[in-house]
Every structure is written in structure tokens, then in C-alpha cells.
Amino acid sequence: MERKLVSSPVRIGVVGCGGVAQIIHLPALARLQEVEIKAICDIDIRKASIVANRFEVEHIFDDIEEMFARCELDAVFILTPNNMHLPMSLIALKHGAHLFIEKPAARNRKEALRIEQAAQKNGRHVMVGMHTRFRHDIRVIKEYLNNQAVGEIFFIKTEWLQARFQAIKQPWLLNKNISGGGVLMDLGIQVIDAIWWIANRPPLESVKVHSHQINESLGVEDFCSICLSFAGNLTVSCLVSWNFPIEHDRFFAEVFGTSGSISLNPLKVKKLSQGKAIDLTPTIYDSLNRQDIFKMAYEREIRHFIDFLLGKEENLESSISEAVSVLSITDWIYESLKKNREIIIQPEGG
Predict the structure, then answer these.
(1) Cα 88 to Cα 109: distance, rounded to the nearest angstrom
(2) Which of 104, 129, 154 is the last residue of a domain?
(3) What is the number of structural domains in the chain?
(4) CA 51 to each of CA 2, 23, 129, 171, 217: distance values in angstroms, whole numbers, following the listed order
(5) Cβ(309)–Cβ(10) below 8 Å
(6) 74-118, pLDDT tens digit by residue?
(7) Residues 163, 223: one domain?
(8) 319 falls within a domain
(9) Which of 24, 93, 182, 206 could staple 229 via S-S, CB 3.0–4.6 A?
(10) DSSP readout, 86-146?
(11) 46 Cβ contact list (under 8 Å, min separation 6)
């Protein structure tokens, strides 16, 4: 796709002004000198007005078509519930805007593919907000793996478990027609994306899933135990839950290679040499707590998107084409869950 750069300031429209917009995206955008937040659009015009006033945004709309009719925009942030990602994205792309879509890109691969095709047709770029890729510790892990610091990786174990009674969710997240699924579409897709990315995007070969409904009043899954097999003899074990019976949230990973291992939370890198373990753990960011890491990751991804539009970054991270691949993995996971058996994925063209 021919790349046409955007001039500073980048004129931004924000569609959806819920919690993620107010807490994460709008504050981060407001701090960037190269950005002008031109408009906020939300079906709740009263809420949009309050948020616009807080961030000194001039234009307020409850209809995206009217927003484009009255404002010249370079890019739009789609921060709505998942079921609106596809229709809002298609409208924005039709009007020539670049897109940032908060994760997941859509409810399934088919919807994400339609966004990708519309972006190609209109010559626009789409980034999907997978903030875990921009955590400093996960980027350190990827760098070590790219340099084969622990040899060839063959097994990754990871878990993101939110403690019972602490995982309070917005009602729409618990409606499958809106969200596309449960904990897999909230936490799981972020873990899977990060694993797939640090392992350099290997093709999926098989998937087997077990799910136990911890909170039986929910209409979506709240616990999944996932086993994924990728090309290159890589096996991944992943646990995700909203309502796990633990006291505190747990976000953890271990990566095992032929000559060492890397763990996350805390970050530790150990290489085996002549029967001894050598500590290769970097000392950077030792003073940061988990909230700092979380906040900085979001700020980095937003900064990356703006810098890409301005030509300061050559390649767009977490593109819509990659989101299509990740959503194909989650589609296969749901297929395995539905059929209660292992699914073997045939190679394309096979």
C-alpha cells in the first residue's frame, strides 16, 4: 500500500467515550503536542459533552456520519463495545480516516477481515490496541528470544487470572452478541497476541481447550485452559479467568528454550552454561511498579500510532492484518470449546 504521511497536528476523532477512552486514550492523546483532538462522538450525547468539556474538545456528536460531515479528520480512535467496531470502522475508512481500534479488532476473524479489506480499498492504515506488545518487560523478552539468548523456544506457560470479586466487568462484556465471547475475548486474546508476536508469528497447528464455568450466572465463559501447538515444535499452555478463586490477580509467564528460560513478573532471564545458571536479567526499570508498566504500555502504543502516521516510524505494529491472524486463533479456540475436542488446523492450500 502506498504510504501517504499525515501532517502535524494529527486531527483526531474519538468514537466512544467510556472508561477506556476517559482513563487511557484521551489523557494520552491530550499530552501529545502533535495531536489535536477535534471531535468526540458517542450515542450518549450528555456523557460526550461532559468528557469533551474535561478534555477541551470543541466538537461533540452522537452520530459518526455527522462528525465526518462537519470535521476534517486524519484518524479516528474506535473505543466502542466490540459489536460496533466493524460498522464504525467501515464508515471511518469510507471517509478516508486512518484507524486505531481498541482490542479486539472485532468479534471474530470474518469481521476483522472486512475491516482489513476496507482499509486496503481506501488506502488507509489500521492499528489494533494490543498494549501488552508495548510493555517494556515483554519487549525485552522478545529481544532476548530474537537473539536466541535461551536457545530455541519449545514451551511457553502463561496465565492471566483475575481474582474473584475483583473482576468487575462492564455489562456489555458479558453479552456474547456484543463482545463476541467472554474472558477469551477480554484477557485471552491479549495473551495469545503477545505469545504469537514474541514467537515471531508462527502458524497454528492444533488447539485443545477446556472450560469450567465458575460463575454460572454468566452467559459467557469465565475460565479457559488452552493448549496451542504452533509450527516449529512450540507448545503453549494458557490459563485465563475473570473469577478465579485466588486472593490477588495473577499475570505470569515462563518461556523455556533449549538452553535456558525467561519468566515474567518478575522478569528473570537464566541461561544454562556448563551446568550452571547464568543470570542475564536486565536491571532497567527496576523502580517501576505494575501500574507504571501498564500505563506506559498504553502510552507507547498510542505514541507509536501517531508517530507512524507522521512518518517517524517505518512499520506499523499490531496491524489489522495481524489482528485477522490472531482472531483466527481465537475462532479455532471457540471451535474446540464447542466441539469439546482437539482441532487440527490444516495448512492453507493443504
Answers:
(1) 17
(2) 129
(3) 2
(4) 36, 11, 21, 21, 33
(5) yes
(6) 999 999 999 999 999 999 999 999 999 999 999 999 999 999 999
(7) yes
(8) no
(9) 206
(10) HHHHHHHHHTT-EEEEESSSSSSHHHHHHHHHHHHHHT--EEEE-GGGG-HHHHHHHHHHH
(11) none
What CA–CA distance (Å, rounded) separates 192 from 197?
A: 8
Of 118, 81, 70, residue with least CA distance to 96: 118
In a domain, 211, yes or no: yes
- The CA–CA distances, whole Å, from 138 to 142, 215, 239, 252, 307 equal 6, 31, 18, 11, 21
Q: Are residues 212 and 76 in the same domain?
A: no
Q: Which cell is 260 given?
A: 535456558
Per-residue pLDDT tens digits for 7-46:
999 999 999 999 999 999 999 999 999 999 999 999 999 9
**Domain for residue 71, yes or no?**
yes
Q: Is the pTM of this model over 0.90?
A: yes
- What is the biggest distance separating any 2 CA atoms in the chain, rounded to whole angstroms? 68
Q: Is the dihedral of CA 336, 341, 344, 348 positive or negative?
A: negative
